[in-house]
Amino acid sequence: MIEVRNVNKSFGGNQILFDINATFEQGKVNLIIGQSGSGKSVLAKSIVGLHVPETGEILFDGRNFLNMTRVEKTEVRKEIGMLFQGSALFDSMTVEENVMFPLKMFTNKTSKEMLDRANFCLERVNLTGKNKLYPAECSGGMQKRIAIARAIAMQPKYLFCDEPNSGLDPKTSIVIDGLIKEITYEYNMTTIVITHDMNSVIEIGDRVLFIHQGKKWWEGDRKSILTTDNQEIIDFVYASNFMKEIRENMQKK
Amino acid sequence: MLKKLLENIGRYFQMIWIVFSKPEKWSVFRKRVFDEIEIIGINSISIVAIMSVFIGAVISLQIASNMDNPLLPSYTVGYITRSTTILEFSPTIISLILAGKVGSNISSEIGTMKITEQIDALEIMGVNSLNYLVLPKIIAAVSFFPVLVIFSMALSLVGGWFALVSSGMGSTEDYIYGIRAFFRSYEVVYALVKTLFFAFIIVSIAAFYGYYTKGGALEVGKASTQAVVVNSITVLIVNLILTQVMLL
């Protein structure tokens, strides 16, 4: 479980996050949604330590990340897997080397054990036999799956996904969403997904946190987000004319 | 402008402090050092060789063609070619060339990793990205630049000999006598000490500009150019300081 308490973050006098409080539960896919520029990525990056909040606490199963030394933070980070918006694969390494990288850095496994683990992870994301390809030779969807394989290589307790569907077609997006959901339940991880893709919200969102203008605006599950009266959420969820029509039809019924 | 300069200097030394922390895993670090020796050092051999042979040849021909005074001994060409090569050309000019080749390469490599979130990925995994990326490059440069400079000295003298003898402006015996005349091994020590400083400066400054790149591809290009310019100026300033300290 990850708890965020009273987190404030600003850049050069421009406050981005205002007193955020949230709990992200283990074994569930927790979504952070909001418009572009609402502060959701800053919140996620603050949780994983890429940004340092001015005030507040970030607790990984009760361990306050912000009070830790660099060495202690490194230990917590070994329990974190992250899927970046642009995949962030190491382009000088093959698919196999990318997946084996965290194992090489932090375990004492033999080459064969590392290769077996990499093959297992690649198989898990349906990329068997793609070991020797370089990221540049892979499609966007494949790159996301390789990034997922790398993220789960160390069997993390926490998984962060920053806009996992950006740049992907709807069909591939569903595959990626499905994978995130499956591995969350399979490994009982605390998963946090940053997205503004409503399909993902409906497909995989066990808990949904809506951030608006840097503030926690709403929290609930994927069903209640469709029926809430909160105007900002209605504007976000039913932004297109097509969705507005659906909402009107739902109200008429 | 002064404030920004001071900020950058402060940030540079903070970066150096983090770079010189203990590597996460020695076996990975060792492999990275050898990879970087190949990228930074071995891959620079050809350019260093070409530059050295041609500049050595030009130095010796220019000296020979300007030696009108009959009082000057015939071995002067070899003597001046050697002194110029060892004291200045090989350590400083070759370092300036490497500042362009290696510096822009390092800066754009790390800058691209930065804007594509590869460095964030390393940090989130718990890897000290500065240590992992920069320290092997510094070790590789500091250990291999002196080899390149010694190689350059030798090729430059060979280039000078070839040009002199093939143009008929001097003899092999006089040239070799000149190379050996009044030789002080301290000059080689001075050249290699300078090279060590230049190697450190070139890699660390290029890494600094790459690591703190923000934005997109355009900014990576700008960072790369800036790294080469700052590197070249810093090498020249440090060259002046070291010459004052070590030779005068």
Key words describing this protein structure:
heterodimer, A: 253 residues, alpha/beta, Rossmann fold, six-stranded mixed β-sheet, 10 helices, B: 248 residues, mainly alpha
Oligomeric status = heterodimer
Mean pLDDT of chain A: 89
**Share of residues in strands of chain A:** 15-25%
| Helix count from the secondary structure assignment of chain B | 9
Uncertain spans of chain A, ≥5 residues at pLDDT below 50?
none
Radius of gyration of chain B: 21 Å
Order of helices and strands of chain B: HHHHHHHHH
Low-confidence stretches of chain B: none
Largest interface: A-B, 24 and 14 residues
First CA to last CA of chain A: what distance? 39 Å
The succession of helices and strands of chain A, N to C, reads EEEHEEHEHHHEHEHEEHHH
Number of strands of chain B: 0
How many E strands of chain A? 10
Beta-strand percentage of chain B? Answer: under 5%
Question: Helix amount of chain B, in percent?
Answer: over 70%
Computed over alpha carbons, the radius of gyration of chain A is 19 Å
Summarize the structure.
By secondary structure, chain A is of the alpha/beta class. Chain A has two domains: about 1-80 and about 155-220, P-loop containing nucleotide triphosphate hydrolases (Rossmann fold, 3-Layer(aba) Sandwich); about 95-155, no CATH class.
Task: Write the topology of this structure.
The complex is a heterodimer of chains A (253) and B (248).
Chain A: E1 2-11, E2 14-24, E3 29-33, H1 40-48, E4 55-60, E5 63-64, H2 70-77, E6 80-83, H3 95-106, H4 111-124, H5 140-152, E7 158-162, H6 170-187, E8 190-195, H7 198-204, E9 207-212, E10 215-220, H8 224-227, H9 231-237, H10 241-252
Parallel strand pairs in A: 3-8, 3-9, 6-7, 7-8
Antiparallel strand pairs in A: 1-2, 1-4, 4-5, 9-10
Helix pairs in contact in A: 3-4, 3-5, 4-5, 5-6, 6-7
Chain B: H1 2-19, H2 26-41, H3 45-65, H4 76-115, H5 118-125, H6 129-166, H7 172-180, H8 185-211, H9 217-247
Helix pairs in contact in B: 2-6, 3-4, 3-6, 4-6, 4-7, 4-8, 4-9, 6-7, 6-8, 8-9
